[in-house]
UniProtKB/TrEMBL annotation:
Residues 740-771 are annotated as: Disordered. Residues 650-748 form the HTH araC/xylS-type domain. GO terms for molecular function: DNA-binding transcription factor activity; sequence-specific DNA binding. It comes from Paenibacillus graminis. The chain crosses the membrane at residues 17-37, 292-311. Pfam families: GGDEF_2, HTH_18. InterPro entries: CdaR_GGDEF, Homeodomain-like_sf, HTH_AraC, HTH_AraC-typ_CS, Tscrpt_reg_AraC-type_HTH. This is AraC family transcriptional regulator. Keywords: DNA-binding, Membrane, Transcription, Transcription regulation, Transmembrane, Transmembrane helix.
């Protein structure tokens, strides 16, 4: 029966025409889709291949430059007379090793070099810039190179990745890249020069971007970089290396996903640098277009077959009705056909896809940015209302809640993870927060600071919610799931979106209570508002000045005592946390300025310091941090006070203080120590951060202030006593530094200042601790 019906339908000329057109259109659509897909992919390969190769070459040049510099040092040492003398010595002699050890220490001063060693094969002795001469390799504190160092007899250059196994606790488990060059005497390899490079510092200079993964392999096929957080299993990477072989470019599949692989080789180390670019996102749109065209071809075939089957019964009436409904403004002529229907369907599908993508992808980001602009007050009222109506159409005009979730000890937490892991954990925390509030609340999150997450909430039902209790459970959940300790600040309820910024400020105010109350707690604004007191006066800042004075005097013990006293008084008085944060930030910035001016090394706690670092810490940990910083700075300043330049500057300052009343100049000051004016100016500027003239002027004005306060001398007489022959010149200099005239300064000094002791005059630079 079916065979009979098909034969009957195909005998109809109109049916055959419809079938021919249907098959032709479907094949054309399929061919266009496949051709477009192939051409787009080929074009994409061409456009991406060149920049990826260039990026690999840039990174390769970075590593080559570092190894070439180290290799040049190794080659120079292999021909150095002191090194050759040590290699040629027949007996063990520590005195012969003294001279080459000094050479090694001189060359090992660069930050990316851990140590330089000279290894002698004859008697298995070694000299190192780190631990000196050892008569036996096994006596060396760090000798993990012994199993492979004698391979130097066969190879002119060795580069090995290894882990430091010595006794220095600061270098424990540090990754090293060891470069070795042979020392040849009389045609035989008698020893080797070994340079240990810092692995992390070398590869931190590589340029990377988020759309590709980069790997480095050595000649033996061992993975050199990265060492952690590998995006793919090593077995999969072995397959990639086999697929790409020595070609610069190919397509590979890893765990079922397509990647573009590019590689280049180093002519210095022989290393292979490989990058993988995921193709899924790059080809997503064109794959969707190809699939849509295939779908349309199937639809056209199905509609054609249906039209043929129903032709004798309905005479294309359904098709005409569909055309009339979809294009009511165009009068349908004749029977119509599927060719007229195809573009209409394509437009509908395209519009639907476009709107779906906007809704699914853009709306969450737009909402998050809206909340961020809202709490930062970077929108006007009109813009705020317009965007609220567009982005939050499914929300209601009901009260809103806003809370801040902040990671405790954020700087310490961030130091434990690489940046990619930090982003992953914060992304996970954001998802957990949204899922946690989803059942009962409408929620939008944004990240106003690195350590915090702002959450805008609206209850789905008009009933009271115990937000503080729910926030406390969220703190426990984040600790259990992500092992992240957080504190939460909750502001008062906002009657509308216009009050959300005020609620954010209240949340931040409440969150600052973490300073006294510790970590992992929820702080509500109404409760925190009246807990703390304002500053009671200048006495609150006295401890900070005493800490700085003690550090400048290299008195670490006194600095620690004032730090502990200051934090104890702060806790006792309950000073408003934001004022405490500002005070501590000012102290740390002055310490950093002191270190920068003097060229001293910063303590580890201030290496990447930002003003928000202390806002995520409690007072006890801030005290511990300040104590560590004080000990470090007192040590480096104490060492500096023994330097020749420091003592020379102190001599100059003492000379200036004892001759203030005389008309001395730079020539006189330099002549006091029998040095040139240029040399004295340079040394003085480096030590104090001030010129000799400015420092002398400050000394004179400081002494003048004391005379104005403690004596009844005329201003002209005071000018003479501080080295000014002309009273007007003295007044101009005084006004420039003190922003007032000497007469007004004396008048204001008659009134009590409210201080128990008069503040000491401040001078420029570090050398003011000469007393």
């Amino acid at each position: 029966m079916l065979r009979f019906k098909l034969k009957y339908l195909l005998n109809n000329k109109q049916n055959r025409l419809i079938l021919m057109l249907t098959v032709s259109v479907s094949l054309l659509i399929i061919l266009i889709g496949l051709f477009s897909y192939r051409e787009y992919r080929n074009a994409l390969d061409t456009e991406l291949n060149t920049p990826n190769i260039e990026l690999l070459q840039i990174n390769l040049d970075v590593t080559n430059r570092a190894f070439r510099e180290a290799d040049n040092k190794a080659v120079d040492l292999s021909f150095h007379q002191a090194v050759l003398k040590y290699i040629n010595a027949d007996a063990e002699d520590a005195e012969i090793a003294a001279e080459p050890q000094d050479v090694l220490k001189t060359l090992a001063t660069e930050p990316d070099i851990h140590a330089i060693s000279v290894i002698k094969f004859k008697d298995h002795s070694v000299i190192s810039s780190g631990y000196g001469y050892k008569a036996s390799w096994e006596e060396a504190p760090e000798h993990a190179w012994t199993p492979w160092i004698e391979k130097m007899k066969e190879k002119p250059l060795l580069i090995k990745r290894r882990v430091y196994t010595g006794t220095d606790p600061q270098l424990s488990n540090t990754e090293l890249l060891s470069l070795a060059r042979p020392i040849v005497r009389n045609g035989e390899v008698a020893g080797a020069v070994l340079i240990d490079l810092d692995y992390d510092m070398l590869f931190s200079k590589l340029y990377s971007h988020l759309s590709s993964y980069q790997f480095v392999y050595n000649l033996e096929g061992e993975l050199i970089y990265p060492k952690l957080n590998l995006p793919f299993p090593l077995t999969e990477m072995d397959k990639v290396l086999k697929d790409i072989d020595v070609s610069p470019f190919t397509h590979v599949k890893i765990e079922g996903k397509a990647y573009m692989a590019n590689q280049t080789f180093s002519n210095v180390t022989g290393w292979r640098m490989l990058s993988l670019v995921p193709m899924e996102q790059l080809l997503k749109n064109v794959t969707t277009a190809r699939n849509m065209m295939l779908m349309l071809s199937l639809i056209s075939i199905a509609v054609g077959c249906s039209a043929i089957y129903y032709y004798n019964f309905a005479a294309f009436r359904p098709l005409k009705r569909i055309n009339k409904l979809l294009t009511p403004d165009i009068a349908a002529a004749g029977h119509g056909n599927l060719y007229d229907l195809e573009p209409v369907i394509g437009k509908l599908v395209g519009d639907f896809q476009s709107k779906s993508l906007v809704a699914d992808w853009s709306l969450p980001e737009l909402r998050s940015k809206y909340v961020n602009d809202l709490i930062s007050r970077s929108m006007g009222t009109q813009e705020m209302r317009t965007k609220w109506e567009h982005y939050f159409a499914d929300w209601e005009e009901n009260p809103l809640e806003l809370l801040i979730i902040s990671i405790d000890r954020h700087a310490q937490w961030a130091a434990a993870f690489v940046e990619e892991d930090q982003m992953l954990l914060k992304y996970a925390m954001n998802n957990i927060v949204l899922e946690y509030f989803e059942p009962a609340w409408r929620a939008v999150t944004t990240a106003p600071q690195k350590d915090s997450l702002a959450v805008l909430l609206q209850p789905r039902e008009l009933e009271e919610k115990e937000l503080k209790e729910e926030s406390a459970r969220l703190v426990v959940l984040l600790q259990e799931v992500l092992k992240i300790s957080v504190s939460i600040g909750v502001g008062s309820t906002a009657s509308g979106v216009a009050q959300a910024a005020r609620s954010y400020d209240q949340s931040m105010h409440a969150l600052s209570g973490r300073l006294y109350e510790g970590y992992g707690l929820v702080h509500a604004y109404p409760e925190a508002e009246s807990k703390y007191t304002e500053s009671v006066g200048a006495a609150d800042e006295a401890w900070r000045q005493e800490v700085l004075h003690a550090l400048k005097s290299s008195d670490g013990g006194t600095a620690l005592e004032w730090v502990r006293r200051g934090t104890k008084d702060t806790r006792k008085l309950g000073i408003q946390p934001q004022k405490v944060f500002r005070s501590i930030n000012d102290l740390l910035e002055e310490i950093m300025s002191m270190a920068t001016t003097g060229g001293y090394p910063l303590p580890a706690e201030l290496a990447d310091y930002t003003r928000h670092q202390v806002t995520t810490m409690d007072l006890a940990e801030i005290e511990d941090m300040l104590c560590r910083i004080a000990v470090h700075m007192a040590g480096v300043l104490g060492a500096h006070r023994q330097s020749k330049e420091y003592l020379l500057v102190q001599n100059l300052i003492a000379y200036m203080e004892s001759h203030l009343q005389e008309n001395i100049g730079l020539q006189d000051i330099a002549g006091h120590i029998n040095m040139g004016v240029s040399s004295v100016s340079t040394i003085f500027k480096e030590e104090t951060g001030s010129t000799v003239y400015d420092y002398l002027t400050n000394l004179r004005i400081d002494k003048a202030c004391g005379l104005l306060q403690d004596s009844g001398l005329k201003i002209a007489d005071i000018a003479l006593q501080v080295g000014y022959q002309n009273e007007n010149s003295f007044i101009r200099a005084f006004r420039k530094i003190k922003s007032t005239t000497p007469g007004k300064f004396r008048e204001s000094s008659k009134y009590p200042s409210g201080y128990a002791d008069r503040p000491k005059p401040r001078r420029s630079g570090v050398s003011e601790d000469s007393e």
